[in-house]
Amino acid sequence: MRVVAALGGNALLERGETPDAEIQQRHVELAVEALAPLCRSHDVVVTHGNGPQVGLLALESEADTSLSHGYPLDALGAQTQGMIGYWLAQALRNAVGREFVALVCQTVVSAADPSFADPSKFVGQVYDRARAEGLAQRFGWHVRADGAAWRRVVPSPRPERIVELAVIRALLERGVGVVCAGGGGIPVLCDEHGRLRGVEAVVDKDRTAALLAERLGADVLLLLTDVAAVQVGFGTPAARPLAASTVDELRRLQLPAGSMGPKVEAACAFVEATGGRAAIGRLRDAIGLLDGTAGTTICGRAHEEALLAQG
């Protein structure tokens, strides 16, 4: 099967950890332990988050007094794609025994996307409110509460097209494993002449993963995180995991906008567009997610009708 596997930001850096390279590389090794069995048996494309890494580089860039102003988010996204892609491609090559390449990708977005007027995508480290508001005043950031902590938020326009899609296809056809579209891809605008330019934003990784899976004709989209499954009644004493669900059922759930919500929406979008299958769950359960014995499975229309018939 052709599988697109999207690693959540927690795959590289857990909340509260220092963003040292050694810590992130250890997480990469654990991620690859879970992914390697899939890569040995299936045609797997890997994508990943980069929120903590982009936030760290942005803070360092803004604080560097040798610069007249900090680096833009599109350039920081390119830097993190290269760094994380290098770690993942090298670790996968070592574990699986075949070639993997990390491809820096651009994602076309619309200048008219409403997110530019309402930044909502969390990036970077967590702070207490006073520290976050101080940084916002100093660097011109937008900040919002993220649970009990505070973080920077940036525009998150919807992905419309992945510029390097044909290159990804060509690599897969030659048997090369691909790590690509990290962090949702570098957000770019395309003018009427086809010329591209970067824009200050971060594309949601899960939305891009769904678009990538659709355009590559993937059979399965895996959204890998640190939560075992989507929960009904999340955050309440009556919470329970969903082993399998329909698109309609998932869209009726009240899910956190900053975490599980985008994953569910991405999974539903892929299933609706392709009739394929998506699954959401823990990274370490990747094999179980693929065979339907772990996490939450969201099936295409034929499977959905069978689930409804079963009650």
The first-level CATH class name of the domain at 2-52 and 75-107 and 162-191 and 201-218: Alpha Beta
Q: What is the makeup of the main sheet?
A: 8 strands, mixed
**How many helical stretches?**
10
Task: Supply the CATH superfamily name of the domain at 2-52 and 75-107 and 162-191 and 201-218.
Answer: Acetylglutamate kinase-like
Query: What is the number of strand segments?
Result: 17
Encode the helix/strand succession as letters: EHEHHEEEHEEEHEEEHEEEEHHEHEH
Structural class: alpha/beta
The CATH topology of the domain at 2-52 and 75-107 and 162-191 and 201-218, please?
Carbamate kinase
Low-confidence stretches: none
Instruction: Give the radius of gyration.
Output: 19 Å
Strand order of the largest sheet: 3-9-2-1-12-16-17-15
Which overall shape is indicated by the principal axes computed on the Cα atoms?
A: globular
Name its key features.
23% strand, 4-stranded mixed beta sheet, alpha/beta, 8-stranded mixed beta sheet, 17 strands, Carbamate kinase, 311 residues
Describe the structure.
This protein is of the alpha/beta class. The protein has a domain at 2-52 and 75-107 and 162-191 and 201-218: Acetylglutamate kinase-like (Carbamate kinase, 3-Layer(aba) Sandwich), CATH 3.40.1160.10. The chain has helices at 21-41, 51-63, 73-96, 129-139, 165-173, 205-215, 247-252, 260-274, 286-291, 301-310, and strands spanning 2-7, 43-48, 100-103, 106-108, 121-127, 142-146, 149-154, 161-162, 177-180, 186-190, 196-198, 220-225, 231-232, 240-241, 244-245, 277-282, 296-298. An eight-stranded mixed sheet has the order 3-9-2-1-12-16-17-15, with helices on both faces. It has a four-stranded mixed sheet with strand order 8-4-10-11. Strand 6 and strand 7 form a beta hairpin. Helix 1 crosses helix 3, helix 2 packs across helix 3 (73-96) and helix 6 (205-215) runs parallel beside helix 8. The longest helix is centred in the N-terminal third of the chain and has 24 residues, at 73-96. It starts with a strand and ends with a helix. The model has no long low-confidence stretch (mean pLDDT 90).
